[in-house]
Protein 1
Amino acid sequence: MACGGGGDGTPSPVQPSPVASPAPTPTPTPTPAPALQPTFSSINTQVLQVWCIGCHSGVGRPPDGGLRLDANAAYGELVNAQSAGKPSAVRVVPRDPSGSYLIQKLEGRSDIIGDRMPFGGQPLAQSDIDVIRAWISQGAPNN
Ligand code: HEC
């Protein structure tokens, strides 16, 4: 008998097991994060830990700009926290996106100290910056 012969002719395809896919690998050019939500957890996972952590991790090194964006530290380092590079500025001012130094750095405003973020890289998509603005407008909750 031939191997695989006979049967009822119905193919039985092997399905990949439905395991969670790994975190996406960042590509060199920022594109809008899929379904970025105006919540801190979404921004943290889809923006900070993708585009910023390479320079702003405090693990085993001092974070660039004195800003530590490790997942469990990022909220406290941003909301109501004084800028290290421009001490008169506050990184995230709840309900005031335009007054938040984080937004000013992401949008490359002329009165920032240093460079537009991500440093030396492609700016974030404006649609993503707008989602971060919306989160700040809602009071920058730790949600
Ligand atoms: C290639 C390295 C690099 C990447 C990537 C990067 N940064 Fe920075 N960041 C720096 C350096 C260096 C400084 C300090 C010099 C400056 O402000 O230009 C800085 C400063 C900052 C500051 C000012 C901190 C303060 O207290 O004054 C903010 C805010 C900031 N970065 C946010 C971000 C965000 C958000 C991202 C991701 C979207 C990001 N950075 C990605 C290197 C980086």
Protein 2
Amino acid sequence: MTRVLLFGSGYIAGHVGTRLTRLGHGVVLGSRRRPRTPETRGLRWLPVDVADPREVRTVVDAVRPDAVVAAHGPSDITRCEADPAGTAAVHVAGARNVVAALAGRAARMVLISTDNVFPGHADSCAESAPTSPANAYGRAKLAAEAAYLVGGDALVLRVSLVYGWDRTGLRPNFFTMCAERLGAGAPVAVPDEHWNTPVLIDDVAAWTAALLDSPHTGVVHLGGPRRLSRVRWARHIAAVHGVDPALVTAVPQRDTGYACRPRNACLHSERAAHLPELRGLDPVDVFAADAALIAAVVGPTGSTGPSGSTASTASTASTASTASTADPSTLAPRAALDTSAALDASAVFDASAVFGRDQP
Ligand SMILES: NC(=O)c1ccc[n+]([C@@H]2O[C@H](COP(=O)([O-])OP(=O)(O)OC[C@H]3O[C@@H](n4cnc5c(N)ncnc54)[C@H](OP(=O)(O)O)[C@@H]3O)[C@@H](O)[C@H]2O)c1
């Protein structure tokens, strides 16, 4: 068993922690506030602010980790843009604090990073593409990458937009918000010309665990296999729900909270196929996952019948990641999606007001 200290206790850290625990590792989460999400239930937690070197050293001394995963915020890109110094103080100083606290311990380090280290001119970026951050968040994450990579046994996993069924997390993710709104017949407005390669949270957890337990260093990219615009994605979610895709309207990205984001926030990998630890972990297609997730929480398309079983969920999705997609522990109970009474279907939902503020 390996002792793993995860910095962060949010969406990604919770799922990575759960995955590592199932694999037999001893996991401790570290963040400023005690986590309350379902995926962190049962996981050990210690208070720590990564921006404070003494607190980082204290928690490292307490846990004596064999490995560390850095999956902490701030991850709200729009808010980071409004506070570049504060963003750097946590991501850059935090990385230096962690590396310094681990000096001499021979601990493995994995940093969860982002596609915002690229300017977004190219349709998609591989590991060899030149970085040039699109925004303050990307600049801070790129500097954090550098701090980890000079620190020794370190790997940076750059992850594209993460999604999954998550109604209880700190921030809404695009899939969950669209699924809830559109499932209730409510309109949504999303930025046009904002492209992603969305990646399922289960795949992020699986790749992080596999790469943590590997000798590889440097940078690895994880993006989903489908590049699509937010508009296209939202319309697909509408179609899967059996509601009119015209409920989704496009608004200019520059007029939204997405304005500081790269036009293309898309990743692919030229390394992954050569890493044996990732064999059988091909990321699931977002369209297959949309169908599987919605079927699992509301039943098959257009149906108000019982939730899809684990087996039927698995058969809807594709590739080797399907098994984790179908894991019922990652899916909310069916009743959780029945929000129609709580939503005002007459008001156009402006995704930029919510996702622009809260969504990476
Ligand atoms: N979600 C995505 O689509 C995505 C994509 C690419 C990369 N990433 C990266 O992955 C990481 C995690 O993302 P996420 O979606 O899991 O974020 P999240 O759900 O917002 O969770 C962020 C976590 O970081 C903790 N945190 C914030 N400031 C901290 C500090 N000063 N010291 C210690 N912990 C702190 C928060 O807890 P407290 O506030 O209680 O401290 C929270 O547990 C971020 O670095 C993000 O840049 C995310």
